[in-house]
Amino acid sequence: MKLSYSPASPYVRKVMVVLHETGQLDDVEIVPTATTPVAPSADLIGKNPLGRIPALERDDGPTLFDSRVICAFLDARGNGGLYPLGKRRWETLTLEALGDGILDSAVNLAYEARFRTEEMRSQPWMDGQWAKISRACAAMNGMWMSHLAGPLDMGQISIACALGYLDFRHDARNWRQGNDALADWFTRFDSRPSLAATRPRDAK
Q1: In the record, which residues are listed under signal peptide (predicted)?
Q2: Same domain for 47 and 111?
Q3: What b/e readout covers 165-189, taking b as 16+ CB neighbours within 10 angstroms?
Q4: Which structural domain range is residue 30 located in?
């Protein structure tokens, strides 16, 4: 299998964490891929018509995308147990969606600054994106700590990758303010070897 990869992508990071946690790193060839919303990689488009990473090429089927699909596939392939059964399953899926929602807003903010000139940027729109992130962090801090403190699952991985990306691209906004329990959990969870090995960085 081949994974279209960028070290800065939080969506790719989710996949990499799953590969680490399920012991499948040696089964996947990492393919560095440079792509942006305004200049998508021609090679990537051949694998994913949306031109987005991650994309996972398989030997026995179509290329898989997006990160949630790839993570579920890899978890099933490696018997990782990251999507538990029963009541906890729905909480796990909800937390995974919440983490991805944070990422969607955080990536949109980063793209706004990177690809739009200052006169074209919309401050109300940017404020709205950060408001979504702030509400999500407050909800986790107030309602989801018991789940986050439980056995490892995909919801925790998604949230950790989202918070790590906030530190990477939006550290000055300080998501930790008013979210002490969440910040303490993230400090502990972020020390896992799979998280330490996949911390985001800009490509050289």
Answers
A1: none
A2: no
A3: bbebbbeeeebbeebeebbebbeeb
A4: 2-78
Q: Please give the tally of structural domains in the chain.
A: 2
Given 16, 49, 78, the domain boundary residue is 78
Report whether 200 contacts 10 (CB < 8 A).
Answer: yes
What are 158-186's pLDDT values in tens digits? 999 999 999 999 999 999 999 999 999 99
This model's pTM is above 0.90: yes
Region class of 58: left (phi > 0), else alpha (psi between -120 and 50), else beta? beta
Domain boundary among 52, 78, 104: 78
Q: What is the largest CA-CA distance in the chain?
A: 50
